[in-house]
Hints:
β2 and β3 (about 30-35) form a beta hairpin. Helix content is about 20%, strand content about 25%. It has one domain (about 10-75). It has helices at about 50-60, 75, and strands spanning about 10-15, 15-20, 30-35, 35-40, 45, 70.
Amino acid sequence: MICKWCEEEGAIEAPKTGYWELPDGNRAIEIKEIPSIECQNCGMEYQTDETVEDIEEQLLLIDTRKLDDSITYKQLMDQPRFLKKNYFNFDKYPL
């Protein structure tokens, strides 16, 4: 796989831990086992744009008050949503 940072071959999929600020700005949580990319050449670790968007959308659509300070990616994505999708992102859902 090609690394988005150094543009060299050697990037691999590897679950990583990340820290996310909740949408209300009240606190941050630790998210473990996030699908991520790790480059064996430059050492950069990152998530795809799609994964970041999925996490941010999920955090907007669930009751974040019920989240512990640490959660796995799967546990986060399995949380029940208030809405089925983010109707407020007009880039994704044009009027």
